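Hi R.,

As promised, here are both runs. First protein below:
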Amino acid sequence: MPDPVPPAVSLPSAARRPISVPDLLVALGVVLLGLLLLIGTNQIATSGMNTVVGPRVFPLIVSVGTLLLGILLTIGVLRGHRAEPAMEEDTDPNAPVNLAPPGLILGGFLLGTLLLQPLGFVVGTAVMYFTVAFAFGERRYGLMAGVAVVVALITYLLFTRGLGLTLPAGILKGVL
């Protein structure tokens, strides 16, 4: 009876896929994120008490896990692996990359960050939410603005009243 599973065939080096630059950038971004998290974790002050589980334990687990994931992704990309769409996805992996939506999201986050101090958390965060909806193709501007403001307001109230955090009120000082 023949073996139902054919033996694994290794591709000669000439037939290997070229390295996918977008996949490599994502993998290196995850490595960078892991490194930054690890640096931030090491800056967390400890209480000085002799405890096994201190304030650094869980951030350390997350940062090391993120760093290891990034390293594994980078190795995979350098070996020629690519992020392939699932069978049910209607995408062409060879189509040119459209950087407009991620650029809009990044620009919205930068603009929202710049607006946090002068105009407040609600306005800055609403700008961020609005640009994400726009980048995903929504064009009902009134609905987008209304949902963005409501979600930003709820987020502000949950963080300030629920968690006791201090966030900039900006132009809504006295109203909130």
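And here is the second one, sequence first, then its structure tokens:
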Amino acid sequence: MFDLSPIKILIIVVVILVVLGPDKLPEVARQAGQAWHSLKNLQSKIESEVRDAVPDLPSTSDIARMARNPVGLLNSLADRATAADEEATNAAAAAAHEAPVGAGSPEGESEPQPEILVEPDSIVDLPPRASQVIPPRRATTDVATAPPDASLN
């Protein structure tokens, strides 16, 4: 967003020094530091109150990582959902095979139990991975390097 090179920073410092003067500069820097410190304290207070209200909230660094890479977050959620679906399917298949034989008849005779064939894809439509849904970003060209439009002539 801001492309601050060392030369630009030096120019900003010189302009601030000229505008404020060497007498007021330490006072203004002290006030800016106090304002920054009070903002950080306010942020930590708000964060602690939110964490008290929502204890299962991920850490701040996890939230920042998720915001920087939403496709990765969606892929991990899709992987978790796929794993949960496979576990549920396997548990249902195991429970169907472990059913007691002849438990329903009073004489103890076994009734033929139909065999249940469970295929994971037939039960639940699995969510697609985010990389399959969201197209990758294309590189944008700079206006100065783009070829001129022939229709403008």
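A quick note on the second one: The first helix runs from residue 6 to 53. Let me know what you think.

Best,
J.
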